[in-house]
Fold each of these.
Amino acid sequence: MSGEGVEAWQTIGAGRGQGGILIVADHASARIPDDIDLGIPADVLTRHVAVDIGVAPLAQALCDRLSCDAVLGGVSRLVCDCNREEDAPGLIPLSSDGIDIPGNHLDAAGREARLARIFRPYHDAVAAAIARGRPALIVSLHSFTPKLETRPEEQRPWQIGILYNQDERAARIAIPLLEAAGIVTGDNQPYSGRVLNATMNRHAEGAGIPYIGIEVRQDLIGDDAGVMLWAERLAPIIGASWDSFADAMDDGARRRA
C-alpha cells in the first residue's frame, strides 16, 4: 500500500489489516495542479491556509510506529477543502484567513469539475481504505496555528486538541492519557468538532467507527525533530485508544463464533 495514489489522494503505510488503525489527513499537501491558477502569491503555499504544516511527515512517522495505513489529501485545501460537506460554500474557498483566492470564482460547471476531480475521488479513497480493513479506530490528523492572522489577539495555548462531534468514545480515552503525559490538551479546542467535522462525520460517525480528531500545534511539528518527538508522544496514546476498541471487536467476534 505504501505510496499508492493519484492526484487527489495518497496512501501510505503497511497496516495491521482487519481491525487496525487508519489515519486520515485531509490537508496534508500544499500542491496546486499545474493547470489550476488560483491567482495567489507563491509564498502562500508555505502557510497554514494552504496546508496543515507537519502533518504529512507526522502521518508517516505514526504509520511506521503503529504499523498502520494513512490516506493523505493530495492537493492544497485552497484548491478544494475536503474536510467540508459537498455543498458547503467554503469547500472551494474564495478567501481564507484574510487572503483572497481569485482563481476560485467558478461557475457551476467549474465547481462541479473541481468536485469530480478532487473531492469525490479523495472521499472514495477514504471509503475504500475503510472497506478494506474495517479499522477499529480512525485518527483524523490536522495541525493548527498558534494564532489566526485575522484574530491575533486570540491565543491558542494547547499543544494538542482532540476534536469530536457526537461520538466521544475515543476522545474520552485519549484526553486523560494526554493530560497524564503532561501534554496541554484542548477538549474540542482550538475549535469544536461539533461545528467542523465533515470527514469524520461521514466516514467514522456515519459508519459507527470510533475516531480521534487530533490537532497538533504546527510550531511543534515544523521540523524533523519536532515530528519525531510528537510521533513518539502520540503513538502510545493512539495505540492505547485502539487497544480498547480492538479488544471489543475481538470479544464480539468470539461471541459470534
Amino acid sequence: MDAYSSPEDRMRADGVETPDFRARAEAKRREARKFGRLQALSVEDALNAPPREYLLDGLIAPGEFSVWWGAPKCGKSFLLLRIAYGMAQGLGMWGRETARVPVCYVAAEGGHGIKGRIHALRKRLGPAPGFDFFAQAVDLFDPKADLDDLIEAVTAFGSRLVVLDTLARVMGGGDENATRDMNAFVRNCLRIQEETGAHVAVIHHGGWDGSHARGSIALIGAADIVVKVSGEQGGPKTALVEYAKDDDSGYSLSFELAEEELPPDAKGRPRKSFVVEETDAPPTPTARGKPLTPRQQGWLDDIVDLFAAPGLAEEREPIEGLRRSLTLTREQVRAGLRGKGRFDLDSHGALTMKDRDRLREALNTLKERRKIGMTDKLVWLL
C-alpha cells in the first residue's frame, strides 16, 4: 500500500514542489499567523504587494480617507460633486485620469438643492449611470442608526467613492469639537472603508476666516489626504493639497463655478445652478502659516536665488497633470546650496551626515510651510 496520502505528498517526498502544494503551504502559513481578526504580515508580503492604485490619478486612491474643508460658500461641495459625477463617467479633472467607477454621494446638507446641481451636471456633462445619491439627513455617528444601511447601499451599488456632505450633517448627535466623538465618527468612516473598499471623502466646514477646519483635530489627524478649498464667491477658487500621506502635497488646483440654466419652475420662474470647471487661472493667494525663522528664511532665499540663476531651472510638469513650472532637480538644489556655503563638509569636501540631516530638515520645513513643492526628484517654488 502506498505510504503517501496524495500525489503531492509523494512529489514532495521526492523533492518536487507542485503549485497546489505551494498554495496550500502558503494558506497554512498565513492561517498560522492569524490572531483573531488580526493578520500578521511579513517583509515578503510587502514586497509582493501590488502597486498602489488610483481612482483619480495622484489624488484619490481606493480604501483611503480624505477631508475637503473650507470656509462657507467657497465651492467645496460643488467641487466634490463634480469630481464624483465625473468619476462615474470616467471623466477626470486637471488632466488627471480617472477610472470609471460607481460612486455614492450622501447629500445630507442641502438635500433639495442637490437635485438642481445634478440636473446642471447632467445638462453640461451628459448621463452618469454609475452615480447614486441620497438627499436626506443621515446619522453616521451612532453605529445603530444609518451606518449599516449606508454600508449595505455602498456594497449594493459597488461604489468605489463615497462622499459625505457635510460632516456636520452626518455626525448626528456627536459633538465635532469633542475628540472622543470625532474619533468615534472617524472609526465609523473607517468601517465603511474596510467593509466596502471604497474611498471615503468627507466635506467639512472651516471658520469664516478660512484659517482652520472646524472642530477636533482628530479628523485631520486621521486623514490620508487633506485638501483646503478657498476662494471668494463669484471669483476664482483653488483646492490646495495641504497633506497627502503617500503622495506629493503643497500644490494648488484651480477651478471656478460656471452658471448653468435649468428649466423654469412650475410658475415659469427662471432657475439656475452652477457647475465646476477647471481653470488655468493663477492660484488664489493662501495663508502660508506662521512666519519663517531667520534661518529658515535664509534657506528659502538661497533656493530662490538658484531659480533666478540663468539657465539653471527648467520648465517641467513637476507632477503628472500639474501645470508646468520652473523646477530644479534635488541634486541641483544640493549642489547650489553647497556653493553658497550652507554645509560644513568633511575632509574630502563631501556632505557630512549632519549636513544631509540639516538639508532634509530645511526642505521638509519649507514644503510644510508651502513655500516650495517637492518630490523625490524635483523642487519648485509655490
